[in-house]
């Protein structure tokens, strides 16, 4: 089937108590690892491209890689989505250039300005059969070239969501309930330590999510910054010349719970990066004489595939839903 929008996917996910995985893609191996897992697990999927990915790999290469995945996986629905569109022009360029979904992220702007920019993108997108994700609230962490310190992050205010959605006409809403971008989601001061000395992050604000859902019944909610930062890959990186102390993510059982509620899309990028980097670091340590990129990218792609399979089956609950 051709690329689809997320409309049908989100409706089924909402009713079925699961979420669709939205994985960031930057090169061929990442696209292949994700979509091979989704094809084998019969899972619908959102492949998302950031401004940074477009700057790195070029819009056309990324669209063509995704089109190749669509041709290789005709039995699963695939959405091509712009992640964190910074302005109208970038959204327009992706809408005109084959994407089926865009995010306009004006969450750092004042409320009225966020509404105005989002509504402009929605009008253009809907005229072209494309759906729009918007954001209210600010996540901590790094996204593209924007770094938001923990103290500057702010939870979504539930009392604003109805006005925002009705005035903008957006199709889904990303909210801030305590997730955060990147591999260092929380400072040590924000966490407690368990008996093994491992950092335990503060729990997500399910009260905020529930209040938002009450005000927007049936409306798909999105969680960004939802990598779990698998400790096996952090360890693999650190044991093979890397230095990532105290990298900590969102516990998977909390994401599973969010997926059972109104969260229909869960964004995962950093976990893929950790799997790829850990695998390549270990490979080079074991094989200092090797220099063929195919030899180290092959196990990296295989580990991305297994990581995505785990997310589909154990975290998102979307395996078998294609
Ligand atoms: O939220 C941002 C995504 O993880 C994309 O990151 O801008 O480095 O491509 P990037
Ligand atoms: P992570 O950094 O937690 O993977 O979040 C990715 C994301 O939200 C992309 O928009
Ligand atoms: Zn994000």
TrEMBL record:
<dbReference type="InterPro" id="IPR050246">
    <property type="entry name" value="Class_II_FBP_aldolase"/>
</dbReference>
<dbReference type="GO" id="GO:0030388">
    <property type="term" value="P:fructose 1,6-bisphosphate metabolic process"/>
</dbReference>
<dbReference type="GO" id="GO:0004332">
    <property type="term" value="F:fructose-bisphosphate aldolase activity"/>
</dbReference>
<keyword id="KW-0456">Lyase</keyword>
<feature type="binding site">
    <location>
        <position position="135"/>
    </location>
    <ligand>
        <name>Zn(2+) 2</name>
    </ligand>
</feature>
<feature type="binding site">
    <location>
        <position position="224"/>
    </location>
    <ligand>
        <name>Zn(2+) 1</name>
    </ligand>
</feature>
<keyword id="KW-0862">Zinc</keyword>
<dbReference type="GO" id="GO:0008270">
    <property type="term" value="F:zinc ion binding"/>
</dbReference>
<feature type="active site" description="Proton donor">
    <location>
        <position position="83"/>
    </location>
</feature>
<keyword id="KW-0479">Metal-binding</keyword>
<comment type="function">
    <text>Catalyzes the aldol condensation of dihydroxyacetone phosphate (DHAP or glycerone-phosphate) with glyceraldehyde 3-phosphate (G3P) to form fructose 1,6-bisphosphate (FBP) in gluconeogenesis and the reverse reaction in glycolysis.</text>
</comment>
<keyword id="KW-0324">Glycolysis</keyword>
<feature type="binding site">
    <location>
        <position position="181"/>
    </location>
    <ligand>
        <name>Zn(2+) 1</name>
    </ligand>
</feature>
<protein>
    <recommendedName>
        <fullName>Fructose-bisphosphate aldolase</fullName>
        <ecNumber>4.1.2.13</ecNumber>
    </recommendedName>
</protein>
<dbReference type="InterPro" id="IPR000771">
    <property type="entry name" value="FBA_II"/>
</dbReference>
<feature type="binding site">
    <location>
        <position position="84"/>
    </location>
    <ligand>
        <name>Zn(2+) 1</name>
    </ligand>
</feature>
<dbReference type="InterPro" id="IPR011289">
    <property type="entry name" value="Fruc_bis_ald_class-2"/>
</dbReference>
<dbReference type="GO" id="GO:0006096">
    <property type="term" value="P:glycolytic process"/>
</dbReference>
<dbReference type="Pfam" id="PF01116">
    <property type="entry name" value="F_bP_aldolase"/>
</dbReference>
<feature type="binding site">
    <location>
        <position position="105"/>
    </location>
    <ligand>
        <name>Zn(2+) 2</name>
    </ligand>
</feature>
<comment type="pathway">
    <text>Carbohydrate degradation; glycolysis; D-glyceraldehyde 3-phosphate and glycerone phosphate from D-glucose: step 4/4.</text>
</comment>
<comment type="similarity">
    <text>Belongs to the class II fructose-bisphosphate aldolase family.</text>
</comment>
<dbReference type="InterPro" id="IPR013785">
    <property type="entry name" value="Aldolase_TIM"/>
</dbReference>
